[in-house]
Design a protein that fits this description.
Blueprint (H helix, E strand, L loop, with lengths): L29 E2 L11 H11 L11 H11 L6 E4 L1 H13 L5 E5 L5 H8 L3 E5 L8 H7 L4 E7 L11 H10 L5 E5 L13 H6 L3 E6 L12 E4 L2 H10 L7 H12 L1 H24 L3 E2 L6 E5 L3 H13 L2 E2 L1 E3 L4 E8 L3 H19 L1
Parallel strand pairs: 1-11, 3-4, 3-5, 5-6, 6-7
Antiparallel strand pairs: 2-8, 7-8, 9-10, 10-13, 12-13
Helix pairs in contact: 1-9, 2-9, 3-4, 3-8, 5-6, 10-12, 11-12
This protein binds pyridoxal-5'-phosphate (PLP).
């Protein structure tokens, strides 16, 4: 070797593209491009964060005992089987890095979360992307793609950006159908928005090949704080803990997340609002001739008939000061992913698109 060379895979990584947050010339943009909570952060978490700020001179807990205990209490899991990370992205990094490397394969699906190919290359592993069926994850396509080299399957349920989800029976069939050396990761970033769904926790409790990940970034309104967690078999958690930095979460992150998870009224309030406005937005989009699947998350993926129509719809929203997410990178050049806002925000989206349709008809 004659020069400094990055590890294999690293140069295959295209930088992650976040949702846009600025519109030229607009002062108060309505940002519906990153699936953030329209109600902001929970006041309980802000209060805990302020109190913890006075402890910033001390190193944080290395084992996250208090936060894991709170998670365990609220979600009915064993605290020893919980691992916390800097967002669930870090937990996903623990599992891919600890269990896959050069020569190994990681499977994800055609419209899967854009972090999955990045995480695969970060681990030095090979990307295996399998098709979906009508924007829904296809269990058989995944099982057919498994080889001796497969180590991890990454799956979001509900999925981003489609908002679709697999019923528990299908998740179970997938977990049972994988060889014993393959880990099934069920990314539950949007689990709380899906009615009657436990995020795969029951499945993970009983199996030794299932890891569930969860986040404080979506329903809890703490995307800027960066806290997530995973729940899996004890052996798997113990392996992942070896590569977790001992002080990965700060005193303020730990305190705010613990207050948020204990704030059940907040969860209830946010879920109710989302379900209500999601149904309203979905109905209105369909009425306006934009196709959308039933979403189980806090966003709706609207599909225009072609790219030109999607461009025009986006331009109309931007003109009204509203930012949404285009999802060409996810295989939907004609798609517009719109975060579900509160009643007033959803009203603004519907009004802007209605005026756009009326204008086009005139
Ligand atoms: C937003 C999101 C996450 C959460 O990432 P954090 O690191 O916890 O903020 C994970 N998976 C999917 C599919 C997401 O959309």
């Amino acid at each position: 070797m004659t020069r400094i060379t990055p590890q294999p895979g690293i140069m295959d990584i295209a930088l992650y593209q976040g949702g846009q947050s600025h519109l030229a010339g607009v002062e108060h943009v309505l940002k519906l491009s990153s699936n953030e909570n329209p109600l902001g952060p929970p006041p309980s978490a802000m209060e805990a964060l302020r109190a913890a700020a006075g402890e910033m001179h001390k190193y944080p807990s290395t084992d996250h005992t208090a936060l894991r205990a709170a998670i365990a209490e609220v979600w009915g899991v064993e605290p020893a089987r919980v691992i916390c990370g800097v967002g669930s992205d870090e937990v996903l990094q623990f599992v891919t890095q600890a269990f896959a490397g050069a020569g190994d394969e990681i499977i994800y699906t055609a419209h899967g979360f854009s972090m999955y190919p990045i995480l695969t290359s970060m681990a030095g592993a090979t990307r295996v992307c399998v098709p979906e069926t009508e924007r829904v994850v296809d269990v058989d396509a995944i099982l057919n793609a498994v080889s001796e080299r497969t180590r991890v399957v990454l799956l979001a349920n509900p999925a981003n950006p489609t908002g679709t989800m697999l019923p528990e029976g299908e998740l179970e069939r997938l977990a049972d159908g994988l060889p014993p050396y393959v880990i099934l990761v069920i990314d539950g970033a949007y689990a709380e928005f899906a009615t009657g769904y436990d995020g795969g926790i029951t499945l993970a409790r009983a199996r030794d090949n299932v890891l569930v990940t969860r986040t404080f970034s979506k329903i809890y309104g703490l995307g800027g704080l960066r806290v997530g967690w995973g729940y899996g078999p004890q052996d798997m958690i113990d392996v992942m803990t070896r590569i977790r930095q001992p002080f990965n979460l700060s005193v303020v992150q730990l305190a705010a997340a613990e207050a948020a998870v204990r704030d059940r009224a907040w969860l209830e309030r946010c879920t109710t609002l989302n379900i209500e406005q999601r149904a309203r937005l979905t109905g209105a989009l369909r009425q306006l001739g934009l196709a959308c699947d039933e979403s189980h998350a806090n966003f709706v993926l609207a599909r225009a008939t072609d790219v030109a129509e999607a461009d025009a719809a986006e331009a109309a929203l931007n003109a009204a000061g509203i930012l949404i997410r285009r999802v060409a990178g996810y295989g939907f050049p004609e798609g517009l992913r719109i975060t579900v806002g509160d009643a007033e925000q959803t009203g603004r989206v519907i009004d802007a698109l209605t005026r756009w349709r009326e204008g086009a008809a005139a």
